[in-house]
Amino acid sequence: MSRRVLIVDDEKSIRDSLKKLLSYEDYRVFTAPEGNAAIKTVRTERVDLVLLDIKMPGMDGIEVLEELKKIEPHLPVIIISGHGNIETAVKATKLGAYDFIEKPIDLDRVLLAVRNGIRQGRLARQNVRLKKKMEDRTRIIGEHPSIEKIMEIIRQVAPTSARVLITGENGTGKELVARKIHELSDRAQESFIEVNCAAIPEELIESELFGHEKGAFTGATGQRIGKFELADEGTLFLDEVGDMSLSAQAKVLRVLQESVLERVGGSRQISVDVRVIAASNKNLEEEIEKGRFRKDLFFRLNVVPVEVIPLRERVSDIPVLASYFLSRITGELGLEEKTISAPLMEEMKSYHWPGNVRELRNVIERICILSRDDEIGLSDIPSLEGPDQVGEDPFRVDDYNQFKELVEKKFFMRKLRENEGNVSKTARKLGMQRSNLYNKLNKYEIDYRG
Question: Which of 292, 253, 309 is CA-nearest to residue 276?
């Protein structure tokens, strides 16, 4: 991609000489004799750098610089003046000028300043994109009261060092909550280290968490630093902590109690300052009853509990989430903006979403890629229902009883979703006995929260 430079000077001879120089160096060059033309060019063209004269009729260079910075805050601007002085240079620098060059112009100096300025501008824009990407990575979307409650807890707990235990089904966004807590904490500039306890073999979990010394076990050919040490002064996120072995649980408990650890095969005590945030898709109190999770560790982790409810229980957030993912994904893929038709949105709101928000995002990405129209409709996507739900079109079956069952199942699923999984509320609105509704849900193997 060619580098683009705008030259702004009321002297035609200077514009021409600079354009000739930069064109020879393979820059694409725009020129403007005064401020308004320069501003119009920046509004309508992609410009990587501006060479701007100070003394011009109408708007002077300082006024133009102020306007350019409003349009493109990270656009590098090099001030050129035959009337240069310290006061002008200081004022231009405070307004965001990248460099200041005096006339008569040293062409070698101009080339060097232009190369460095464009590089600086690209780095600034990259930093903005990365920052936005990181902010998007921790953005929690939703207007449901449960999401508002979670955000309030996050705002209260983030500035402290309190441990947090996040519970919820897979795909609900537990890691997102953990990252948001870290982002808003005093440790935000330090490391956020994630450990998926369910993905690490039991025999390796202790080495992963605490590190090991050379020769500690077969295959330990060198020293390894564990996740606790890597997260020192930062945050350690223990995802699916309920899958951790009892042996590892005991060692984690010790670190939480004493803030010291020993590497596997080592004897030296190492002090660490780590904030631990844990998450689980299991009911840890039930795991305690079954002897699979330590009660003392549970109490250490569960200082501030946060529950992330399934997507099916916050149906009102589906349009908000779908619109957000649609906008973000089309932008990432460089596609034209798309909208979701009302019938498809209703289908999404009635669907069970066993994979929760993660599944919704994947569905949106798929239909963004496959749909050719600006509005995405039901015809652009196969039925959302899985094999254990209503995947068959009732109007395509020949048997009347099968037709009735398919329609009835779909009806109960939709009404249950509309009432965010609340069986009692659904039965009340349908004018049914709750026990009768339970029987229907069990008959059709419809998942619910009683």
Answer: 253
Quote the tokens at residue 111. 């080339």
Which CATH number, 1.10.10.10, 3.40.50.720, 1.10.8.60, 3.60.150.10, labels domain 312-380? 1.10.8.60
Q: What is the CATH T-level fold of the domain 394-443, as seen in this structure? A: Arc Repressor Mutant, subunit A (1.10.10)
Main-chain dihedrals φ then ψ at residue 433, nearest 5 degrees: -70, 140
Helix (H, G, I), strand (E, B), or coil: what is residue 337?
Answer: coil
Q: What is the bridge-based pairing of β-strands 260-261 and 270-271?
A: antiparallel
The answer to whether residues 54 and 108 touch, using CB atoms and an 8 Å cutoff, is no
Collapsed DSSP state (helix, strand, coil) of residue 3: coil
| Spatial CB neighbours of 135, under 8 Å, sequence gap ≥ 6 | none
pLDDT top residue among 165 and 413: 165
Look at residue 298 and give its three-state secondary structure.
Answer: helix
How far apart CA 183 and CA 409 sit, in angstroms, is 44
pLDDT, mean of residues 164-186 = 95
Q: Which fold does the domain 4-135 belong to in CATH?
A: Rossmann fold (3.40.50)
Torsions phi, psi for 258 (to 5 deg): -115, -10
Question: Cis ω on the peptide bond leading into residue 145 (within 30° of 0)?
Answer: no
| Tokens (6 digits) for 394 | 């009732």
CATH number of 153-308: 3.40.50.300
**Chain-wide mean pLDDT for the chain?**
88
* Rg (the chain; Cα; Å): 30
H/E segment holding residue 116: helix 107-137
